[in-house]
TrEMBL record:
GO terms for biological process: chitin catabolic process; oligosaccharide catabolic process. Pfam families: Glyco_hydro_18. It comes from Molothrus ater. The keyword Hydrolase applies. The keyword Hydrolase applies. Keywords: Glycosidase, Hydrolase. One of its GO terms (cellular component) is extracellular space. This is DIAC acetylchitobiase. Residues 1-116 form the GH18 domain. The gene is Ctbs. One of its GO terms (molecular function) is chitinase activity. InterPro entries: Chitinase_insertion_sf, GH, GH18_Domain-Containing, Glyco_hydro18_cat.
Length: 116
């Protein structure tokens, strides 16, 4: 089925369903890989999140789901509209802190998106 990628069922701390079979990809790698992926950037309207698809060197299909400034800003706006006390971002150290101009712009945009 198009855009369906299943993870093997791997128990994690007693949870019957988890992403323990997946792995974390640094945002810098995502930004470099998304444009050369099979699918290019895709958007899931239910999750309000971007993702892309690629095949590795042995032909295995993968999906990479992540947040970007747009998806973070939607989540931050939701939190604010509900009067909730805050929002966090998982692993801000996975952003690209190199001195490349595009990387600096992406990283600043991610941090700014946390404040609606």
């Amino acid at each position: 089925q198009e855009h369906v990628c299943s993870l093997p069922k791997v128990p994690f701390r007693g949870a019957p369903c988890s992403d323990a079979a997946g792995s974390q990809v640094p945002y810098a790698a995502i930004m470099k890989q998304v444009n050369s992926s099979l699918s290019g950037l895709l958007w899931d309207e239910v999750q309000k999140a971007p993702f892309y698809e690629y095949k590795d060197s042995v032909g295995q299909f993968h999906q990479v789901w992540f947040d970007d400034p747009h998806s973070i800003s939607l989540k931050a706006a939701y939190v604010k509209s509900r009067g909730l006390r805050g929002i966090g971002m998982w692993n801000g150290n996975s952003l690209d802190y190199s001195k490349e101009a595009a990387a600096e712009q992406q990283t600043q945009a991610m941090w700014k998106a946390l404040t609606p």
